[in-house]
Specification:
8% strand, four-stranded antiparallel beta sheet
Amino acid sequence: MFSAKGRAVFRLFKNFFHEKPAYISIPILIFILLTTLFFFDPKPTLNSDFDLKRQSQIQDSLILDFTEHTILNLAEKIHMEVDSQLNLSLMRPELIYVLPTSLNTFNNITRKKEMPLLYRIDSSSFSLKAEGFGTFKNRGYRIKKALQKKLGNDYIVSFFVPNEIKVQYKGYPWNMELKLSVPLLKIALEEEIDPALLMSLTKNHEGFISLQQTPDLNRFRNLAKKLKSRLEEHSSMEDALASIYFNSTSPKDLPLKWWKQPLARNWVHQVFIDAQIYRDYGFTLEDP
């Protein structure tokens, strides 16, 4: 998929050649092609694929580490017991994403302060066990029905008598965009900024996987801090985003009438569009 800058450049070239006669546009196109081949030594695709795969593997390990710490922190905060035999590194983002929803549904139906035991984990599912809740059959089926409705078709919720609720993910494996939604949401909450805007900025600024540096979740926090400070310094969100595009360190460094520059205007506009798409898909702090 093209980046926002790439799409903007593509549109400019497309519009130019569409308006020019063929006898003018074709020689220019050939000249651009030859110049590109002369100045840029193409690299083998295999090397690029290998770099991307290697970067993805490193970032995946960071996400798994983040996931394990998130479970432990959540368990400590809400006083949820975790079976000592569990391998928490198996808890994929597809599962941890719905753990809070599962616990909330459990509490809403049991109407108790006690939390279930995080009982079983594998690469596609986790189980909550209601130990010490007495006869649980009726509440178990109610939790199953309510939770299945909330999680949708990508998940299967099962109830096993006497007291086990199992949540299994059966959809397609998440891409990096979805995997990073959990850590990015956490960072946005901590920095008190709009999660959808941070997600969109990440996508359009450096991308979810950067080949220019070793993957590090701290780069997303640095971007979040930059976004927050720019929003505080500038009078409008458009100017704040433009300052990141131009890498200007203060409002006075922002080019005058920057919106008249097509690439910058299109890039800022794309950040807004993608942020709204994320909000529409539920990546927001507001209740649906």
